[in-house]
Amino acid sequence: MSNIPLRNGQYTVQAYDVNLAESTFEDVALTAATFKYTSLESATFELVRFDGATLHNVGFDAATMDRVSFVRARLTNARCDHIALDNVDLAGASIANTSFKDAHLERIDFSGATITGGRYVGTTLEGIAVELLLELHRMHSGAVAPEEA
Fold it and tell me: Per UniProt, which keywords does this protein have (predicted)?
C-alpha cells in the first residue's frame, strides 16, 4: 500500500508495518490512531490532527507538515530526519528517542511536551520557545543550532 490520498474526514486507523510513503493527508482527523513500524516518508500532511495518537517506530523522513496537531500524542523511536515542520502543535506530547536529524522546525508548540532522548544534529529551529532550546541544548550539548527564538 503506498501513495494513499486521505482528504476531508475523520478516520480510525490502526496501521502496523504499512508503507504509506509519499501519501497525502489533507484536512483529516486521525485522533487516537495507532501507527507502528509504518513508513510515512516523503508524505505531505496539511491540516491533520494526530491528537492522542500512538506513533511507534514510524518513519517521517523527508515529510512536510503544515498546521498539524500532535496534542498528547506519543512518538516513540520515530524518525523525522530531513523533515520540514511548520506551525505544528506538540503540546503535551510524549516524544521519546525520536530523531530530528537535519530537520527544519518552525513555529512549533512544545508546551508541556515531555522530550527524552532523541537526536537533533543539524536541526534548525525558528520561533521556538527559549526554554525548549535550553532544554534541548542541555540534553544534546552543541547539537541544536537555533536561528531565532
Answer: Repeat
Per DSSP, 19 falls in state B
Position 99: which residue type? S
Q: How confident is the model at residue 9 (pLDDT cuts 50, 70, 90)?
A: low
**Could you give the CA distance from residue 75 to residue 97 in angstroms, rounded to a whole number?**
8
Is 1 in contact with 19 (CB distance < 8 Å)?
yes
Give the residue carrying C-alpha cell 484536512.
27
Close Cβ partners of 122 (under 8 Å, ≥ 6 residues apart): 101, 102, 103, 145
The DSSP secondary-structure symbol of 130 reads: H
pTM value is: 0.79
Asked whether the beta carbons of 116 and 93 are under 8 A apart, the reply is no
Beta partners for residue 125, in sequence order? 105, 146
Instruction: Show the domains of the chain with their CATH numbers.
Output: 5-9+26-148 (2.160.20.80)
* Inter-residue contact 125 to 147 (CB < 8 Å): yes
